[in-house]
Amino acid sequence: MLDIALGERYEILIHLDQVGGSMFYDHRKQDTTNNDLYLDGMMTMININDLDGSHLVSLKSIMASDGSSITQ
Predict the structure, then answer these.
(1) What pLDDT score does 41 carry?
(2) String of DSSP letters for the chain
């Protein structure tokens, strides 16, 4: 976890060497919501597939905090 204060800036290098998805987001509710809707704020999802294209990560359905499904 990296705590970034207001006005600070960092450059980071992330080594992703395993197949699957990695989500990056802020843990503050006001930054990950928009009008109290979850998954409507600052979030990034990075998907890593095998070199042959197998093990695709589907983003069609993501579970919200209330258990409802959000379709993209």
Answers:
(1) 66
(2) -----TT----------SSEEEEEE-SSHHHHEETTEETSSSEEEEEE--TTS-SPPP-SEEE-TTS-EEE-
